Amino acid sequence: MVTEKEKQQMFDYMAELGKTYDDLINSLRLCMELLVSFKPLMPDPVAWQEMVDMLEQKIVVGERVKKKRWFH
Questions:
Q1: Residues whose CB is less than 8 angstroms from the CB of residue 37 and which lie 6 or more positions away in sequence, other chains included
Q2: Of 10, 22, 43, 69, which is least packed with CB atoms within 10 Å of its CB?
Q3: What percent of the chain is helix, strand and coil (3-state, nearest 5)?
Q4: 4-38 and 45-71 are packed helices; what angle lies between their axes, rounded to 10 degrees?
Q5: What is the pLDDT of residue 68?
């Protein structure tokens, strides 16, 4: 049997995981913005853009997961 205290600790832990996840997505977004600013300086801007696009896809997936977390 799980006690109320254990349940609360589990919910608190899950909330902290959610905050950490949100921070990671926000950090990834900032990194992507920084990388975009360096594109003109890169010897292979096409490959650079592919990397930026991959990061953008990760952010989109992360945002989708974030929305699901709040609506379920």
A1: none
A2: 43
A3: 90, 0, 10
A4: 160
A5: 78
The residue type found at 14 is: M
| One-letter amino acid for residue 2 of the chain | V
What tokens does 25 get? 């997505």
CB–CB of 69/25 below 8 Å? Answer: no
Among residues 71, 55, 59, which one has the least CA distance to residue 21? 59
Please tell me the distance from the alpha carbon of residue 31 to that of residue 6, in angstroms, as a whole number: 37
Per-residue tens of pLDDT for the chain, all 72 residues: 889 999 999 999 999 998 999 999 999 999 999 999 999 999 999 999 999 999 999 999 999 887 777 665
